[in-house]
Amino acid sequence: MKIRKNFLEGLEQKVYIYENKKEEFFVVAVPDINWSYTFTYEEDDIQSKLMHSLKERIASETALTLSSRIVQWTTEM
Questions:
Q1: How many domains are there within the chain?
Q2: Which residues lie closer than 8 Å to 64 by C-beta, 6 or more apart?
Q3: What is the pLDDT of residues 38-65, one digit of tens each?
C-alpha cells in the first residue's frame, strides 16, 4: 500500500492506494472525506468515474484535481 499526501483547500489529506497485482485492481481511499473507490487495470475513462464519485463529497474543481492526481499516482505504480 502506498500513502500519498494531497494538499487541497489548505488542508493535508492522506490518500491510501492499494494495488492487487494478481487480480489487477486498485483500491483508493481518502478517510478525511469518507471516500473510497475500486477500479481495475482495464477500466475505461477512470478519471471521469473518479471525478463523478468524488463530486458527491467535495467541490467539482477539487474533485477534478484529486481525480487527476489519483490517475497519475496509480499509473506510476
A1: 1
A2: 51
A3: 999 999 999 999 999 999 999 999 999 9
Give the integer Cα–Cα distance in Å for 46 and 7.
21
What single letter denotes the amino acid at residue 65? Answer: T
DSSP annotation of 46: H
Residue 75 has which C-alpha cell? 499509473
Are 18 and 1 a contacting pair, CB within 8 Å? yes
Structural domain boundaries enclosing 28:
2-76
Number of Cβ within 10 Å of residue 56's Cβ equals 9
C-alpha Rg value of the chain to the nearest Å: 12
